[in-house]
Specification:
A three-stranded antiparallel beta sheet has the order 1-2-5, with helices on one face. A two-stranded antiparallel sheet has the order 3-4. The protein has two domains: 128 residues, Intergrase catalytic core (hpI Integrase, Chain A, Orthogonal Bundle); 63 residues. A hairpin with a 5-residue loop joins strand 3 and strand 4. The longest helix is centred in the middle third of the chain and has 21 residues. It is mostly helical. Helix 2 packs across helix 6.
């Protein structure tokens, strides 16, 4: 795990450990499962996930728009603020996840109708909110995650590190760096390459091994 202040992402979570995470998350409440999958698949940060609402869900495109964030106020409340570095984006998601998101959003809309004037945010239906429509605080996501990791005796990893695990996984699948950088919502490819350079080197080493065959005598 990177030291405080480091710009390098070094998360030693292999594919087997990712599967352990996935098996464990299946035992969590439905909304927490959706929260995990959104974080893992879109690389969204805690505050960006907390700000997701009905306007963020692009059903026809099977994608999620990440264009705002939630800031925590000193008095205990939250406010909608721009994303980190004002960088916005749209992340495509699998159809299976979209079905889950639609189900959760429909439940929230039903609650809004039931609560009527008691709904605290009449202009928003936040995907992750309480029965009065108030969105969850970003720090509550991290707190839940710490309990989840401890309860399931999983290797320690921060919730924010799901972003790094996601991006590192995409790099290992040899996706175009431009696509990965766009999905990470970095302002330029160089930022992605700087943060995840160690992963790129590992993939490049695998690529080099492909040429080893040409040093052997052709058979047949």
């Amino acid at each position: 795990m990177p030291s405080k202040g480091s710009s390098k992402a070094q998360i030693n979570y292999n594919k087997e450990q990712i599967w352990e995470l996935i098996d464990a998350i299946k035992t969590e409440p439905f909304d927490k499962q959706v929260l995990f999958w959104i974080a893992f698949i879109t690389s969204a940060r805690e505050a960006e996930i907390a700000a997701l609402d009905d306007n963020s869900i692009l059903i026809d495109e099977c994608a999620i728009r990440i264009d705002k964030s939630l800031g925590e106020m000193s008095g205990g409340g939250v406010e909608i603020i721009p994303t980190k570095n004002h960088l916005e984006g749209v992340a495509a998601i699998p159809e299976t996840l979209m079905v889950m998101v639609e189900k959760l959003l429909l439940d929230k809309k039903k609650w809004k109708m039931l609560m009527r004037d008691k709904w605290e945010y009449p202009d928003n239906v936040f995907l992750f909110c309480n029965d009065h429509g108030r969105p969850i605080r970003p720090d509550s996501i991290s707190q839940w995650w710490i309990r989840f990791i401890k309860k399931n005796q999983l290797p320690k990893v921060r919730f924010h590190d799901l972003r790094h695990i996601s991006i590192t996984f995409l790099i290992s699948q040899n996706l175009p760096m431009k696509s990965i950088s766009s999905r990470a919502r970095h302002s330029k490819i160089g930022t992605t390459m700087d943060i995840y350079g160690h992963s790129i080197v590992e993939v490049d080493r695998e690529a080099a091994q492909l040429f080893e065959q040409f040093f052997s005598k052709k058979e047949g």
